[in-house]
Structure formats: C-alpha cells, structure tokens
From TrEMBL:
SUPFAM superfamilies according to UniProt: YefM-like
Family: Belongs to the phD/YefM antitoxin family.
Superkingdom of origin: Bacteria
Annotated protein name in UniProt: Antitoxin
Function: Antitoxin component of a type II toxin-antitoxin (TA) system.
Pfam families per record: PhdYeFM_antitox
Residues in the signal sequence: none
Amino acid sequence: MKYSDSIKPISYLKTHASEVVRNVCSNRETMIITHHGEAKVIVQYIHVYEQTQESLALLKILAQSSASIERGEYNPVGEAFEAVRET
C-alpha cells in the first residue's frame, strides 16, 4: 500500500463517504484523513483493526514475560510441569 494514495482531505471523505467505506472494506487498506493539511483520522476496516489490536496484546504479553524473566520471576520448567501434574 502506498500511503500517498490513501491520504485524502476531509472534504473528500464528506463527498465520497460510501466510496471510501467500500474501498476500505474491499481492499483492507487504511485511509488517512487530513484536516487543514495535517493527518487527523484514519478510516480502517474493522477486521484489520481487530487483528492489529490482537497483535498488540500479544506483544504486550511477550514484553511482560520478558521483563519477568529479566527480574528472575519465573519457575524452572520441571517445577512448572510438576505443579501442573499436582492439580
């Protein structure tokens, strides 16, 4: 996706809203809307947004896990499996 093709002024969105929605949904691309020459809003297909949010959540979990390991807050594998077997 070329961002230069997906940047439009708010006036374009106002006059072509249904076309914008159709294109965003069919192409799964994000459109950047400008106001007074500055990027202010994006229009994004909901499923792409949901996938992005899920990816961010997984990255946060990985970062938290990595930080826990660096702080020494973990159980050796053997102990973890033993705890699972006991339950």
